[in-house]
Amino acid sequence: MANTILKTKDVKLKYGDFEALHGIDLSFNENEITALIGPSGCGKSTFLRCLNRMNDLIDGVTITGEFDYRGKDVYAEDYDIVELRKQIGMVFQQPNPFPMSIYDNVAYGLRVAGVRDKETLDEAVQTSLKQAAIWDEVKDKLDKSALALSGGQQQRVCIARALAVSPDIILLDEPTSALDPHSSRQIEATLLQLKEKYTIITVTHNLQQAARIADRTAFFLQGDLIEADDTKNIFMNPAHKETSDFITGRFG
Ligand SMILES: Nc1ncnc2c1ncn2[C@@H]1O[C@H](COP(=O)(O)OP(=O)(O)OP(=O)(O)O)[C@@H](O)[C@H]1O
């Protein structure tokens, strides 16, 4: 029986006067991959960024509605945002390793949190790189710049960096769209392994990718959530004509 870990209700978001989300009710289950799909500009990334309050950084944004994360209100005034972003980590579209060694990239979050013990850091770096399925490729060059890796390797180092602080949920915003097909498939395989331990929410433009890896899929259109269901229902038997038109390529 799936356990709901994060639940939103009537989420509306405005950039200035422009309402980009019109009232989103969506639940996420623990140890599942949920894919957010929909045509460009429908609000997928905006919604994803609300989940760990990344939109707080943008001027003129107004957000209303409920965000319940394990019984806590994510937007409560006293919610520690640094702690929230540790619990709900994020990986971006463009691999964005810091200009430092592979080791220092992965250890970064722990050092910021005050961890200094070398053994603890070594272990966390190794475990995170293994979980991100990149350990074998980098174990002999941990002191080399992460910027010298390929795009796909950089993205897996970024996933390792997110994992090192022991998150609960990982948000990914089109994590493979800047990568070649081989690297994309490696990331997909990595995500399928990671869901044993983490809850994963990913925005993707790639419908085949959603069909391959997501347990549940949510279809957005012009700031509305049209439907969310088991991925096979969304692709084989959608409840709404808009969903069927989108997944059969009739628009978007
Ligand atoms: N910082 C911003 N300021 C103003 N409007 C924004 C901002 N970011 C996004 N928007 C607008 O909000 C709407 C939703 O954008 P969003 O990026 O969430 O869509 P998306 O579905 O993720 O699109 P894409 O698939 O192209 O990335 C769009 O109309 C976009 O122009």
From TrEMBL:
<dbReference type="GO" id="GO:0005315">
    <property type="term" value="F:phosphate transmembrane transporter activity"/>
</dbReference>
<keyword id="KW-0592">Phosphate transport</keyword>
<dbReference type="GO" id="GO:0035435">
    <property type="term" value="P:phosphate ion transmembrane transport"/>
</dbReference>
<dbReference type="GO" id="GO:0016020">
    <property type="term" value="C:membrane"/>
</dbReference>
<feature type="domain" description="ABC transporter">
    <location>
        <begin position="6"/>
        <end position="247"/>
    </location>
</feature>
<dbReference type="Pfam" id="PF00005">
    <property type="entry name" value="ABC_tran"/>
</dbReference>
<dbReference type="InterPro" id="IPR027417">
    <property type="entry name" value="P-loop_NTPase"/>
</dbReference>
<protein>
    <submittedName>
        <fullName>Phosphate transport system ATP-binding protein</fullName>
    </submittedName>
</protein>
<dbReference type="GO" id="GO:0005524">
    <property type="term" value="F:ATP binding"/>
</dbReference>
<dbReference type="InterPro" id="IPR003439">
    <property type="entry name" value="ABC_transporter-like_ATP-bd"/>
</dbReference>
<dbReference type="InterPro" id="IPR003593">
    <property type="entry name" value="AAA+_ATPase"/>
</dbReference>
<dbReference type="InterPro" id="IPR017871">
    <property type="entry name" value="ABC_transporter-like_CS"/>
</dbReference>
<dbReference type="GO" id="GO:0016887">
    <property type="term" value="F:ATP hydrolysis activity"/>
</dbReference>
<keyword id="KW-0813">Transport</keyword>
<keyword id="KW-0067">ATP-binding</keyword>
<keyword id="KW-0547">Nucleotide-binding</keyword>
<dbReference type="InterPro" id="IPR005670">
    <property type="entry name" value="PstB-like"/>
</dbReference>
